[in-house]
Specification:
Blueprint: E1 3-8, H1 9-15, H2 24-29, E2 38-42, H3 49-55, E3 73-78, E4 81-83, H4 91-95, E5 99-101, E6 105-107, E7 111-116
Parallel strand pairs: 1-7
Antiparallel strand pairs: 1-2, 3-5, 3-7, 4-6
The protein binds FE2/S2 (inorganic) cluster.
FE2/S2 (inorganic) cluster binds at residues 62-65, 67-69, 71-72, 101, 103.
Length: 129
Amino acid sequence: MPTVEYLNYEVVNDQGWDIDDDDLFEKAADAGLDEEDFGELDVPEGSYILETAEAQGYDWPFSCRAGACANCASIVKEGEIDMDMQQILSDEEVEEKNVRLTCIGSPATDEVKIVYNAKHLDYLQNRVI
Ligand code: FES
């Protein structure tokens, strides 16, 4: 079953870390964070990342659950996430900034690392509902 390691963007922001830092997850591992902010999810075949996080009792942001807003956005740091049809993110955001929507996203590699709660990034603000 694919594993998704997650880190809360609010922690990145609060700590003054850089989202583009290659050592972001090493820093997080050394920071003594709560499981809500940093941990791992096993995502069953055919499940979306958001619903899997919710099934584990986590309260990740969402709104439409249909690929039409930026509320559930995350940034992929390692691995790959495939999305169902979405029309809200630009090609550049998907291909270069590695933004993925967790409500319609499933792991496409065995190990994935994401920064969830990425809706707080400036360039996504105008699509948060
Ligand atoms: S909740 Fe709107 S795109 Fe995921």
